[in-house]
Amino acid sequence: MAILVPFFLFADRIEAAARALLASPPSGVAAALVLGGLLASDVVLPVPSSFVSAAVGASAARLTSVLLLFAGIVLLPGIALLVVRLPAWRRRAAQRRGASG
Fold it and tell me: Which of 13, 14, 65, 78 is nearest to 36 (CA)?
């Protein structure tokens, strides 16, 4: 519930920014970097991914949209998970090797 508070407080500003963005979208590469980054940051920030996904669909070609959404929603968070969890996995593997040997 608390995650919705910013949307209630800043709904008018968010809607105005969305309308301005959709009225004059940035260049393709800049939009791809910003929108892909927003989707990837959804792992740690309360980013409205459905809104960002809609912006991706509105601002890019179909194949580009699919690739951006896949990278932003699946690949980048998966890489972030691996980076965060890898030390713990290595530590557990070392403990198992030490216990068995």
Answer: 65
d(CA 98, CA 80): 28
Where is 52: in which H helix or E strand?
Answer: helix 49-59
Q: Which two tokens stand for residue 12?
A: 């008018």
Structural domain boundaries, residue 10: 2-100
pTM above 0.70, yes or no: no
Q: Measure the CA–CA gap between 45 and 41, rounded to whole angstroms.
A: 6
44-96 pLDDT per residue, tens: 777 787 888 887 777 767 787 788 778 877 887 788 888 888 888 889 988 88
Cβ 46 vs Cβ 6: under 8 Å:
yes
d(CA 39, CA 77): 9
Total domains present in the chain: 1
Quote the CA–CA distance of 60 and 80 in Å, as a whole number. Answer: 25
The gap between the terminal CA atoms of the chain, to the nearest Å, is 50
